[in-house]
């Protein structure tokens, strides 16, 4: 269906509007500057400024355990929602990018958390510490989720997380 109310027409209208906005960009900037209300565009002074933790402070699994969870994620879970490109992820992981890049380190932690929850079968004899680690909470708790709600730039790794 390609009528006036179709998704295709919505995209075409949005692209046309974008062309008009780009051609009048100085005018739009001036207009936006006049109507912007600082209380909605600036962080309040009482709100802590988000900081990005060092990737070195992330606690990762050992190589063998990490390999098991990554394989589980891509074999069992990624097939339903393929947000991460497997060959690129593998290459970056083998190069140790998760130890140098905070955003990629967070993706690795998210994959560990999801895969741990998938692999873990709770037993009645498990204590709280075992459940915490095996269910993926140990990895999930390290994710810097609060940064995404405070307006930091979005990168590929952040959107994958």
TrEMBL record:
Domain Xylanolytic transcriptional activator regulatory intervals: 71-133
Q: Which GO terms describe its biological process?
A: DNA-templated transcription
Q: Which GO terms describe its molecular function?
A: DNA binding; zinc ion binding
The superkingdom listed in its UniProt entry is Eukaryota
Give a Pfam family name. Fungal_trans
This protein's record includes keyword Nucleus: yes
Keywords assigned by UniProt, alphabetized: Nucleus
Checking InterPro entries in the record gives:
XnlR_reg_dom
Leader sequence residues:
none
| Protein's recorded name | Xylanolytic transcriptional activator regulatory domain-containing protein
Q: Which organism is it from?
A: Dendrothele bispora (strain CBS 962.96)
């Amino acid at each position: 269906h390609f009528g006036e109310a179709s998704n295709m027409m919505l995209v075409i209208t949005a692209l046309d509007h974008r062309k008009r906005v780009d051609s009048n960009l100085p005018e739009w900037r001036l207009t936006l500057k006049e109507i912007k209300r600082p209380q909605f565009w600036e962080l309040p002074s009482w709100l802590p400024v988000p900081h990005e933790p060092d990737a070195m402070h992330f606690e990762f699994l050992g190589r063998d355990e990490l390999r098991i969870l990554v394989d589980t994620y891509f074999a069992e879970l990624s097939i339903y929602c393929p947000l991460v490109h497997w060959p690129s992820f593998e290459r970056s992981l083998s190069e140790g990018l998760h130890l140098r890049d905070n955003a990629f380190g967070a993706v690795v932690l998210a994959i560990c958390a999801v895969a741990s929850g998938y692999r873990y079968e709770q037993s009645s004899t498990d204590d709280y510490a075992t459940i915490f680690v095996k269910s993926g909470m140990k990895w999930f708790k390290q994710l810097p989720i609060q940064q995404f709600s405070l307006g930091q730039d979005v990168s590929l790794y952040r959107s994958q997380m």
